[in-house]
Prior knowledge:
This protein is of the alpha/beta class.
Amino acid sequence: xxxxxxxxxxxxxxxxxxxxxxxxxxxxxxxxxxxxxxxxxxxxxxxxxxxxxxxxxxxxxxxxxxxxxxxxxxxxxxxxxxxxxxxxxxxxxxxxxxxxxxxxxxxxxxxxxxxxxxxxxxxxxxxxxxxxxxxxxxxxxxxxxxxxxxxxxxxxxxxxxxxxxxxxxxxxxxxxxxxxxxxxxxxxxxxxxxxxxxxxxxxxxxxxxxxxxxxxxxxxxxxxxxxxxxxxxxxxxxxxxxxxxxxxxxxxxxxxxxxxxxxxxxxxxxxxxxxxxxxxxxxxxxxxxxxxxxxxxxxxxxxxxxxxxxxxxxxxxxxxxxxxxxxxxxxxxxxxxxxxxxxxxxxxxxxxxxxxxxxxxxxxxxxx
Length: 368
């Protein structure tokens, strides 16, 4: 009888302990968030999608890292990984960050849909996720980006205006981004209706991986198919692809100064091409502002605070409705406003832009 009672008591205790453990596990990061409340000692996971687009390594990464440090009195740590445009690699990177028990993850997804399971896994581990620049599927806690549809509209309207009466006299080539990037679809959604109405689109491409090499090959194929004398303009979704398209045009004997090319991101090479007239325009997006917001969101979430004042708007993904959001405005960048954009915001120094090769172009534009 005594043995039976002792066994029953042990069993009851085991059940009680298991229940306590289960309750603790189900509470996610509740205990951790209390410990982190108002604490500057946080670890932020930062996952960027690729390094072929210049902005990620030269702007986004250092700007976000600087913001995290500033907001945490230098105590916040950033664990950084770049997926190099490989969705499987980024999934593995997410798993590593979850295993390391970082306090929050800033995620710029390679593939917004395939990463959803990893976002759910982070949620289950009590780690909030900030979607940066691209809204990923899954239970995202906050999101910041630019008005991506407006980016496409700005590009298309600028191209149509620059073409003027020539807009329908020939063909344009439309070089969109990767189909795995939700932003690329939004750029296209903004640009395509305007271009369809006001121009003749001879060829359009969804460029695999946003890779300039692919954009160059696509442009060469378009020139071969349409004939170089029939191309009057080119829409490029970003500056790196614009550079590759211009290279293909030069190789085919097309003067890019006579065939306006759009861009986006205000890369250093893009700004220098705008100065010399080989690229007509870009879209300047204030990366310092976007990075600052991402840092604010990450620190607030890591400390268990509300993000409503930082991200007052809402966005919907295919899986999650009402994601707290902050959208940053965009600006059409041409020769006329280089001073008021990339120089004013200290994206580049004058010496970065006006190297010896571009000294005369800078002087002509009043950049001295």
